[in-house]
Amino acid sequence: RSADRKVDLLITGIGRLVTPVGSHPRGGKEMAVLKEIPQAAIAIAGGRIVLADAEATVLRALGDAVIGEVLDAGGRLAMPGLVDAHTHLVHAGSREHESALKRSGVPYLEILARGGGILSTMKATRTASEQALYDQARRSLDEMLLQGTTTVEAKSGYGLCLEDELKQLSVTRELSKTHPIELVSTFMGAHAVPPEYQGRPDAYVELVVDVMLPKVAEAGLASFCDVFCERGVFTQEQSRRILTEAKRHGLRPKIHADELESLGGLQLAAEVGATSAEHLLVSDDAGLQALADGGVIPVLLPGTSFNLGLNKHARAREMMDQFHLPVTLATDYNPGSSPTESMQLIMALAQIHLRMTPEEIVTACTINAANAIGRGSEIGTLEAGKQADVVIFDVPTLAYLPYHFGINHTFGVIKKGRAAVW
Ligand code: NIG
Ligand code: FE
Fold it and tell me: Which residue out of 98, 334, 340, 346 has the highest number of ligand 1 atoms within 8 Å of its CB and is therefore the one to mutate?
């Protein structure tokens, strides 16, 4: 592997490099297995990793190759850039006015039924200009990058009509062209029933299927389609219709399921061949078995149970230990149930509430998350051939990262071979 070509960037002085290996989701016990290299270096060319290994080995392999830039990590810890596989990135406004209501015991779905919640953000998003949506989402992306996130999935679902869903999705597309963070776009027209269709959810489902899906697909504005399968939102049957039609249009299915009540969303996810099923706070054994049998990735969002004060946590340990599932973690960044951009906070919550180990947490935030958005062959590990997405954390040990919570440990972020934060 003599690097006779030019190396654009060489990261030296990595005290410890930790990474999962391979391109596939890592389930159960495999999640705890990381490759760990002390005194490491990473050579990067053309935005890709040429070699990630012991520093002495890398320097030997480089020989007299021309080296562009050299960055010294100063003995710190390097891992793959974090992948946030579930966010509602683009929206207007915020909902701190609902905090007191939530604390006084009004349930999340009751706030929605009163026209608040998702519908409150829908109103703000419908009246916002593209520029305003862009500016607000861009600030969130800046924060995510500073926190070590290099790839983000972004769902629509605050327009809830053709024009405003397209507006949200085109803002996502604009951001993906102009921000270092890479975005994977998900169409979620079925996030709630808008007021115009109050009491006529089936008519809204028809609008999503007959009008929105074809337009979104034709414009190439999304790779995935998601639906909120929950009591009072969309039933299993309505979700089936949307996800089946989405597939016909070339969009890969995802589902919000078992967040508050189970409506058979996990069985549906397996049935339609969904890439992922997300939330899973109240999932039972039959649902988890369906995911395992169907090869569906569970995406857990501990920021949501924390912020909604639910005292109820996803069964991550059983998902890994009994069902060998490739558990994934994400922020669910949104103005209602999880207003945080920080994957580092999610890591801390995962250790405490989901009882995951630091190694499992790394796997959940990198290679498994990459697979949850269909990008496992490109990102999620630090291996030759993968895109050079790297985060350097200023921590003495890996275990320190989820342990010391509430601060930002990021020292540097490399996206596609370029220093985005240093
Ligand atoms: O993933 N559950 C549905 N959607 C979001 C919340 C969106 C909102 O409250 O604005 C979620 O929790
Ligand atoms: Fe969500």
Answer: 334
Burial class, 233, CB count within 10 angstroms (exposed 0-12 / middle 13-18 / buried 19+): buried
295: number of CA atoms within 13 Å, CB side? 8
DSSP state letter for 251: P
| Sign of the alpha-carbon torsion through 350, 28, 21, 185 | negative
Counting ligands in written order, the one closest to the CA of 122 is: 1
Q: How far is CA 147 from CA 271, 310, 314, 417, in A?
A: 36, 26, 24, 18
Over residues 3-62, the pLDDT tens digits come to 457 999 999 999 999 999 999 999 999 999 999 999 999 999 999 999 999 999 999 999
* 82-372 is classed CATH 3.20.20.140: yes
C-alpha count within 13 angstroms, C-beta hemisphere, residue 403: 9
Q: How many Å from the N-terminal Cα to the C-terminal Cα in the chain?
A: 29
Q: Helix/strand/coil (H, E, C) string of 62-102?
A: HCCCCEEEEEECCCCEEEECEEECCECCCCCCCCHHHHHHH
Query: What CATH number labels 7-80+381-421?
Result: 2.30.40.10
The residue behind tokens 């994400």 is 330
Q: How far is the CA of 88 from the centre of ligand 2 (A)?
A: 6
Measure 416 CA to ligand 1 centroid, in angstroms.
Answer: 30
Q: What is the pTM of this model?
A: 0.98
Whether residue 350 contacts residue 361, with contact meaning beta carbons closer than 8 Å, is answered with yes
Q: Say which amino acid occupies 187.
A: F
Q: Determine the distance from the C-alpha atom of residue 55 to the mean position of all C-alpha atoms in its chain, rounded to a whole number.
A: 31
- Minimum-distance ligand 1 atom for the alpha carbon of 278: 1
Task: Write down the domain spans for the chain.
Answer: 7-80+381-421, 82-372
The neighbouring-strand residues paired with 36 are 18
ipTM of the shown complex: 0.96
Q: Do domains 7-80+381-421 and 82-372 have the same CATH topology?
A: no
Residue 357 tokens, joined? 């180990």
